[in-house]
Write a structure and sequence with these properties.
five-stranded mixed sheet; alpha+beta; flat; single chain
């Protein structure tokens, strides 16, 4: 941080990766299999991990289902993986990975009975459904964007979304599925005042390279015109300007990519999945896990709580921590941190959270309607700051109730 004539100047950077990035392929395969099982057995227990590399998909983990239809869906995991890879855009064997020719190995077995009794109602030491594991989860919200997300990660997500859009629509036919974005925002006294730097690294075909073998200047210009400018003008037109620095494929070329260029693993992009480094992360990944795993469900509830606190005007930013013990229903701690932006005492906000939000695993699952096949869509472009019927944790329906309840303490 630097001080300039009484102003506190900061720069903050976040990245995102496209749906064709190797790690994101794995997240989507894991969540696509989860969805296929939940369609037939909403109470299935799953913890599915995926690995990809050149010509190979490996699926492993623990799954417990309760009816033949769900067992058949699980038996079709190989086809689900291939369909997911095809939908992402890996349809050409010439790039080293495609849905037809890749091998698929699976090593899936049932969940440990010792763990199961801790999260099954009426079993174990506690009769109510407990948390699927110990751990701490964070949710975050701030008023930098309409989605109440930090601006750097919000823009980074929208950029990879746009790259996918112009590729699939044929606007930039030379793009391939694997890409990354990065956005650096300049802050003055905590307020975004300038987009400092935008980085795009995107896989492409050979036919747009120049004589030196690198991506042509014309292609780089097209990325700015068709991807970067439309995103920034839509999200924050006031921050568009000629002084933005661009690094488009800064290594020069990016022809070899996807699983042929780098292996991928489920859960390796947890910072991309959440807040881009703003706010803390408990460490647990999301994809492949059913909502009995508080790594996922409690992180969604923490975001829901934080977002409604900011939407209610109780703070300009808010971080919520929930922590659990395996097999125990009630959280062992609930913490609210507004980074000094609260308009009432933080202890009052914490009391409001306990009074207004369900935080036991079963309550969270019911309240946010998490026993549905909604997870494949979360596995790309971030789990937060999204719209659509599946993203129940993005609603602001508790904001007015919180505002009313807090009125007696407001200045």
């Amino acid at each position: 941080m630097a001080a300039v004539k009484g102003k506190q100047i900061q720069r903050f950077t976040s990245e995102s990766v496209s749906q064709g990035h190797p790690d994101k392929i794995c997240d989507q395969v894991s969540d696509a299999i989860l969805d296929s099982v939940l369609r037939h057995d909403p109470h299935a227990r799953t913890a599915i991990e995926t690995m990809v590399t050149t010509g190979l998909i490996v699926i492993a983990g623990e799954v417990t289902v309760h009816n033949p239809e769900a067992e058949r869906a699980l038996a079709d995991a190989e086809q689900t993986a291939r369909d997911t890879v095809r939908e992402i855009g890996y349809t050409d064997s010439a790039i080293g990975f495609d849905y037809r020719s890749c091998a698929v190995l699976r090593a899936i077995h049932s969940q440990s009975a010792d763990i199961s009794q801790g999260v099954t109602t009426g079993k174990g030491l506690h009769k109510e459904q407990g948390a699927g594991d110990q751990g701490l989860m964070f949710g975050f919200a701030c008023n930098e964007t309409r989605a109440l997300m930090p601006l750097p990660i919000h823009l980074a997500h929208r950029l990879v979304e746009k790259l996918t859009e112009v590729r699939e629509e044929g606007v930039l036919k030379w793009l391939r599925p694997d890409s990354k974005s990065q956005v650096t925002v300049r802050y003055e006294n905590g307020t975004p005042t300038k987009i400092d730097t935008v980085v795009i690294s995107t896989q492409h075909t050979e036919d747009i390279v120049d004589r030196s073998g690198n991506m042509s200047a014309a292609a780089r210009k097209r990325i700015i015109q068709k991807v970067i400018r439309p995103v920034i003008m839509k999200e924050r037109a006031d921050l568009w300007g000629p002084r933005i620095r661009y690094h488009i494929n800064p290594t020069g070329r990016f022809v070899v990519g996807g699983p042929h260029g780098d292996s991928g693993l489920t859960g390796r992009k947890i910072i991309v999945d959440t807040y881009g480094g703003r706010g803390r992360h408990g460490g647990g990944a999301f994809s492949g896990k059913d909502p009995s795993k508080v790594d996922r469900s409690a992180a969604y509830m923490a975001r829901y709580i934080a977002k409604n606190i900011v939407a209610a005007g109780l703070a300009d930013q808010c971080e919520v921590q929930l922590a659990y013990a395996i097999g125990v229903a009630d959280p062992v701690s609930v913490q609210v941190d507004t980074k000094g932006t609260a308009r009432i005492d933080e202890r009052r906000i914490a009391d409001l959270v306990r009074d207004h939000f369900p935080m036991r695993p079963r309550e969270i699952t019911d309240y946010l309607k998490l026993l549905r096949p909604i997870y494949r869509e979360t596995a790309r472009n971030g789990h937060f700051g999204r719209t659509g019927p599946g993203f129940t944790w993005e609603k602001k329906d508790m904001a007015s109730k919180l505002k009313t309840a807090a009125a007696r303490w407001m200045n």
